[in-house]
Amino acid sequence: MEEQLDQAVALVQAVLRDALVALYLFGSAVLGGLKPTSDLDLLAVTRRPTSDDEKRRLVEGLLALSRRPRYLELTVVGESEIRPWRYPPLMDLQYGDWLRAELERGEIPPPTANPDLAALITMTLLADRPLLGPPPGELFDPVPHEDLLRAGVDELGGILADLDHDTRNMLLTLARIWCTAETGEIRSKDAAADWALPHVPPEHRRVLERARDGYRAGDYGTWHDLDVCAAADYMAGEIRRSRPRRGGAAPR
What we know:
By secondary structure, the chain is an alpha+beta fold. The protein has two domains: 142 residues, no CATH class; 96 residues, no CATH class. Helix content is 50%, strand content 12%. Helix 3 links the parallel strand 2 and strand 3. The longest helix is centred in the last third of the chain and has 17 residues.
């Protein structure tokens, strides 16, 4: 893992050069819960938007490095987009292996507003693991809890749309968003499932247990014998109910 991480850092530094403000490691690798299929999650902050050539070089380099041995995920955001904080910030670029087919064809998504940056920045602050640049607390404003909840709700449509072809991870993502909404904490995917299990009706527990156990074992699982949609819809409903109105109650 360390060699692959060093190679990814060198790539980002070589491509972005003086435009790079900082590069952070976050997620399972530093918050606990790193499992056989976990990504190495990186967040880069830049002084300016990246050029088309920089995007292309980053993507080509990451296509070569990812899966050797771990999947890599890189998110690039401009410094002016995240400080002062506003919701949702503009994401300049994101590399992830779920986009591999499109990226291999040279189809790089344009910059877009991304609610999930609220969670990514919160996890980066919690991890406090700079690879290059200052500690994240010197660069990021804390994300208000209301915006973190809002981001979770805004992501639900995409999560449910991806349920069929990434069932395990989407179920665990729902569990993590729900856990954060209720507790104010961001936990690893399997720890969030442990929290959620006593809170779901008995008929949904086998679904969540299979997702959690598969994640721990590196197994994506089979799902034809379980009512996955019902379990996902239940958690999505709880997430929507957990979101307080602006200025409303703190997390329970």
